[in-house]
Amino acid sequence: MRSTRRYAALLSVAVVAMVLAGCSKGSGSANGVDWSTMTSAAQGGGMSKLIAAAKAEGTLNVIALPPTWANYGNIIKTFSQKYGIKVNSANPNGSSQDEVDAVKQQAGTKAAPDVLDVGQSVALANTALMAPYKVATWSNIPDSQKESTGLWYEDYGGFMAIGYDSAKFGTITAVSDLMDPKFKNAVALNGNPTQANAALNGVMMVNLAQGGSLDDISKGVDFFHQLKQAGNFVPVQATSATVKAGTTPVVIDWDYLNATHGSDVSTWKVFVPDNAVLGGYYNQAINKQAPHPAAARLWEEYLYSQAANGGQNLWLVGGARPVEQQAMTSNGSINQVAAAKLPTVSGTPVFMSGEQSTNASTYLASNWAKAIS
Amino acid sequence: MATQGIAAEPARPAGRAGRRSFAWVGTLPFFAYVGLLLILPTAIVVWGGISNGHGLDLGNLKILWDANVRTSFLHSVELSSITALVGAVLGAILAYAVASGNPDGLIRRTFLAGGGVLAQFGGVTLAFAFTAAIGPTSGFLFHASWFYKFPIGIGLIYIYFQVPLMLLVFLPAIVGMKREWREATESLGGSTWDYWRLVGGRLLLPAFLGATLLLFANALAAYATIQAWENQIPYVVPQMISNSITSEVGLASTNAAQALALGMVVLVAIVMTLYVLLQRRTSRWLQ
After folding, report:
1. A122 and B45: CB-CB below 8 Å?
2. What is the pLDDT of residues B23-53, one digit of tens each?
3. Interface contact A246-B137, CB threshold 8 A
């Protein structure tokens, strides 16, 4: 809480973890197969062998998976029940960077995260920490959405959207509507764009709507400057608590996260501007030094399973678009009720490249605080 | 205290006096605890601030001269000073009022219990309570347009835990004032003003300043409260540190965070040295 000792405590926990490291190296060699080096289930003898090895390990460490984020609460519960594997969910509200820090600081301990769910720039910067692995449905992931050797692969995503309480504001049809005086102290981002991926994409979406390009985010920053001048910007991180309390009645965030506020505010609407359809996907990866290498690989198989109760459809139920959606629509395995509930998107979706995202964050680092102070 | 230990010396049984004492063993858990959770982490932070993973590198410290970083240190000192002074004055008046009542009375006990609870009330809960009460959109008392202005908005929130903390740390000093001092002043013809100016004020001043420094350090280290109040501008150093650690858009730098933390350690060390000096002076009178 309010103490410098918080940081001290964090650091010392890491130290204690390092001290304990010596006595806890996972073996990962049930059935004589060393799953930590297997790059597919088939290579290790098939799914049944993988399941048996994962059950023998008995535990899976996940990190930074909020239960209300893309249906992760349910996904973890279903996996745990299906395979009888205990899932330790660490730091559910952590950032992608927190995940990578935990992998480094807890390296070699039983507490280290087995699997990661990280944003694009963090994934690209940390491939040295990842073990290559290809799930059974690998060919259903579009080529542009995976690393060719299987170090990382996109998992689910959505589009940047404006969520709002329609009882208070009527209907929003364009980003520029937000300058209206009726939005005084109303508009919030999901975090600080110099820190959080979702917030950076929020500024980028506004930037596109204002005529900016993926290569230059300055028009988006200018818009937030005007929004701040008009008194319409709330400098609070939007969460379900702030939406419920009415502190942030307008939220710029991924459509699948925005949609969850509907359970607290029944008049909540989600709108994707058709001149700024900005998509973004998160990425899965396995920790190279995962303490439970078989469970980590089984988790990925489960997340990319197209079964009715598999990860792809469960993400869809949570309002996120699974990476294999197109293939599942063709082969008929998709949950059609959930698919029909997704916010409608018209216009051509665009995605930021790693370089564009880096340029945007560099610009934000020197201009964001100035623009909104 | 050290003096008590010395005073207790002659009372030892004569038979054990010559033997080597193993009493220090009892302090091991304490020193192990402090070493592991305070000294070691501090050392790691200091080393991280002046190294680069390969060896000594003072380049990290350059960040302390960056304009944004300097502003955040100034903001930290500004916010901490204002809330410490306001909290100290209000808390001292409250402590005086409480001290003048019945020592075993309901009021004293209620205020002490309440102070104990409220001095620890901080973080997300406190910030959220204020936002819900007087936030510009959702406030149910009134809609404060200045709520997100620095330092007034966050200062008001900090004072909420500073005043009760002052009550707790300053009350013993006031209670320790002897009635005889006042009577002596009066019997020598001194007025109330003379008493406060020449006796009471001088006795209480070190305790007051010491408590103010404690409040200053308390506000300086606060993080969760201000982060929940707003997180778009890193006004104070702990927010800058947090940004340097958690950025998931490629702006994270552990060494920068440690250099910033080193700056905080130096600042706190200065404050705490002043505090110890004042404390030494205070304890001479109030035993």
Report:
1. no
2. 888 889 999 999 999 899 889 888 888 887 7
3. yes
3-state SS track over chain B:
CHHHHHHHHHHCCHHHCCCCCCHHHHHHHHHHHHHHHHHHHHHHHHHHHCECCCCECHHHHHHHHCHHHHHHHHHHHHHHHHHHHHHHHHHHHHHHHHHCCCCCCHHHHHHHHHHHHHCCCCHHHHHHHHHHHHCCCCCCCCCCCCCCCCCHHHHHHHHHHHHHHHHHHHHHHHHCCCHHHHHHHHHCCCCHHHHHHHHHHHHHHHHHHHHHHHHHHHHHHCCHHHHHHCCCCCCCHHHHHHHHHHCCCCCCCHHHHHHHHHHHHHHHHHHHHHHHHHHHHHHHHCC
Report which residue type is found at B126.
L
pLDDT digits (tens, 9 = 90+) for B244-279: 888 888 788 888 898 999 999 999 899 889 888 877
Q: A168-185: per-residue pLDDT in tens?
A: 999 999 999 999 999 999
Decide: pTM greater than 0.90. Answer: no
Instruction: Note whether A247 contacts B233, CB cutoff 8 Å.
Output: no
Query: pLDDT for B132-143, tens place per residue?
Result: 899 888 788 888
Residue in chain A nearest B42 by alpha carbon:
A8
A246 contacts chain B (CB < 8 A)? yes
Out of B37, B228, B247, closest to residue A12 by CB? B37
CA distance B36 to B24: 18
Tokens standing for residue B144? 């404060």
| DSSP assignment letter at A109 | S
How close B228 gets to chain A, by Cα (Å)? Answer: 7
Q: Is A307 on the interface with B (CB under 8 A)?
A: no
Q: Under DSSP, is residue A107 helix (H, G, I), strand (E, B) or coil? A: coil
Give the H/E segment covering residue A131. strand A130-131
**CB nearest B230 (choices: A15, A236, A360):** A236
Closest Cα partner for A63 from A32, A24, A22, A101? A101
For residues B216 and B227, what is the distance between their CA atoms, to the nearest angstrom? 18
Q: By C-alpha distance, which of A300, A286, A294, A304 is closest to A113?
A: A286
Q: Do A235 and B232 touch (CB under 8 A)?
A: yes
How buried is A259 (Cβ within 10 angstroms: 0-12 exposed, 13-18 middle, 19+ buried)? buried
Q: Nearest chain B Cα to A242, which residue?
A: B128
Q: How close is the nearest chain B Cα to the Cα of A84, in Å?
A: 33
Q: Can you tell me which residue has the tokens 């006042």?
A: B182
Nearest CA in chain A to B246: A97
